Amino acid sequence: MRVTYLILVLFLGTQAAWAEGLPELGDASGAILSPQMERRIGEEAMRDIRLREPGYLDDPELAAYINVLGHRLSATNPDARQDFEFFMIRDATINAFAMPGGFVGVNTGLLIAAQSESEVASVLAHEVAHVTQHHIARMLGKQAQMSVPNIAALVVAILAARSNPQAAQGAMAAITAGNIQSQLDYSRDFEREADRVGFQSLQRAGFDVHAMGTFFERLQKFGRLYENNAPAYLRTHPMTSERIADMQNRAQDVVYRQVPDSVEFQLVRAKLKSEQGSPGDALVVFKDQVNARRFASEAGAHYGLAAALLRVREFMGAESELAELRRLIGSHPMVELLAARIKAGAGDLKGAHEIVVAAAKQHPNYRPLSYAQVDYLQLLGRHPEAVAALGELIKTYPRDARLFNLQAKSYATMGKRLLQHQALAEAYLLQGTLPAAIEQLQLAQRSGDGDFYQLSSVDARLRQLRVLQLEQTKKEVQR
Ligand SMILES: [Zn+2]
Predict the structure, then answer these.
(1) How far is the centre of ligand 1, averaged over its atoms, from the C-alpha of 242 (Å)?
(2) Is the pLDDT of residue 25 over 60?
């Protein structure tokens, strides 16, 4: 069986030369991979990223921000039938990448380098378009006869090495054992299509469409200046002057209107910057901004200074920056979460918990506040209350793996082994790891601490998952 690993290039176009031998475009509807298969590849790749990628940012506030922004764009695209999940990687290089199944990664470097929220949105819109147009499936072509885990492993190997072409080649060689026939970047045709579709999303979602050409032009200039250190984004998405001109022409037909950045954009950027470098460095950066009144956003500067003061454990100073911040923008969930962290940092966990409880009443739909409530209850050792709160949250968000993981943590501390493994099983299932979910249910069966009803519920769930597993195996054999 001959295998062509065309997918490689979607994530790391190592050399421009590869862009020459372009694949047949195929048509969007005739995708080789079914949407379910794309999703499973993406889920498997995601699981590896969560486990092994040191830069994976498990920060609910950042995740909430990038998902709101991304969903605002994907919601405008009539072809976006699948779920999208946006996530962030702590990496200073400017990059964003799409994986099969609607998973889109965004480097922190992109957020920091962008000069407006519309610029970030234009990159996301382009990535979303690569997903909705099924460019990955179309590039795989008919030659691809790989199993889902093999493709996912490949995707991850390439992502892991994305900032380091030499390492990437090593990883590819190890996995593909000489089976690579060819590799290529997103073709120019795919890039044009992603630009066109992305542009529409950007416009429909109400962002500044001029940002697309501006940002890509800046990237290209940057790329020329630092040839060997060009933004990673340019390696995977070949930029041409023709593309930039095309975007600028399209933007000319749109009446210019100013689109202000959201306050979240400012706070998220301040949060990222406040976490950079040593605590002392971060403090100097934000003190300078505030003292000299040299900032893009006053709220961002005060948020960053409060966060930096927390890092150097100057809690009083941090509190007064918070007061300033509240005066500027009122009650904001990200401000309240920072307030709670400052309280907790000063040793007042009870006070921290009270802050997030009060804030959650004002901002009931902001999930990071709900997680924080549970976190503080757990830190306070109030596990039965944490379990009760989680029970309610799971009713509202039954597909949120983090909640089940938190549940497992409390059950583990309370010595309830059956319930712990049952919760872990649901967490694994939601993260697309069926075999691990089944294993957890088997552990739950053998835990020896469940009552009759709990045991029957574990048995019933196990039967369901085994049926599911059988169906998945059949589908893979048919491929
Ligand atoms: Zn692209």
Answers:
(1) 14
(2) no
